[in-house]
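Here is one record:
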Amino acid sequence: GTSDFSYGFNSKYLKYVANYWLNKYNWKYHEGIINTLPQFTTEIEGLKIHFIHAKPMHNNYEVIVPLLILHGWPGNVFEFLKIIPLLVDPIQQIGSDISITFEIIAPSIPGFGWSAAPIKKGEMKD
């Protein structure tokens, strides 16, 4: 079957996965979801770093708190796609009378997402 990896990677499974990604996976749909959040890149110590920077869209909040959220290994910032809108605009998302919100900065750690891989030995350790 496609789940037997006793003697290494299963070529039947690889063909199944490749076929799924080529013919069935709806990349445009997921790309649209990803692109709902403002994304940027910057350079830090020679590395291109990708990050999401989401701010409240209106001034209905008395307090706006900056919040840095970091993903773990081997994750990426897109794990936060559902929570960022709730944190940035709780009035619109939940509909309650809330006076505080967050400005979110969510960087992709080097080597993950669209951030460049480390270029110096020892920059990323398990």
Summary: The first strand starts at residue 39 and ends at 44. Residues 11-24 form the longest helix (14 residues). Residues 37-107 form one domain. The chain is about 25% helix and 20% strand.
